[in-house]
Amino acid sequence: MSKELVVSKIESGTVIDHIPAGRALAVLRILGITGREGITVALVMNVESRKLGRKDIVKIGGRELTPEEVNIISAVAPTATINIVRNFEVVKKFRVSPPEVVRGRFKCKNPTCITNAPREPAVTVFHMVRKEPPLFVCAYCGRYHELSDLV
Ligand code: CTP
Ligand code: ZN
Question: Does the beta carbon of 91 lie inside 6 Å of ligand 1?
Fold first, then answer.
């Protein structure tokens, strides 16, 4: 067993690896995981990494996160790798990349946008208009947002 293993392997679920050191809590916040869902979550912070110097790791038991769900963490963890684990084996591995479309998750910064209307606000939709660095436009009012404005 690797000497770097601080938290045991998981049987099934998602391991978010190579998170920049200190960002694990921000990753959980963006994913909307509070710890009150009853799912098992393991956090590893500031462990040694050959690639990053130090890194954080988040392990989520029993839940397979999709690229759509996790891509948004690229705002705080662009280096993250997502590992889907089944029966103790990594069966899928992918890097996060900024999402093309983000729906219903973040608020538009324009106070007069229809998505911020006090009654029956519309669900927000942002489209990526530039990849590097990521830039998003509100589908309703056209306001531009950097990824860091959204999260
Ligand atoms: N992992 C886990 N439980 C498992 C399998 C893997 O918690 N049953 C974790 C490992 O501890 C590691 C991550 O998932 O943090 C990726 O596992 P693996 O691909 O085996 O590790 P590496 O080859 O080191 O990954 P990479 O090449 O992405 O650095
Ligand atoms: Zn808007």
Answer: no
* Index of the ligand 1 atom closest to the CA of residue 9: 3
Distance from the Cα of residue 138 to its chain's centroid: 20
Encode pLDDT of 103-138 as tens digits.
888 899 999 999 999 988 899 999 999 988 889 999
Long-range CB pairs of 3-11, under 8 A, 24+ apart, other chains included = 4/47, 4/48, 6/44, 6/47, 7/42, 7/44, 7/57, 7/59, 9/85, 9/88, 10/40, 10/42, 10/59, 10/61, 10/85, 10/88, 11/61, 11/85, 11/87, 11/88
With the most atoms of ligand 1 within 8 angstroms of its CB, the residue from 19, 45, 90, 96 to mutate is 90
pTM to 2 decimal places: 0.85
> How is the chain split into domains, by residue range?
13-95, 101-150
CATH class of the domain at 13-95: alpha beta
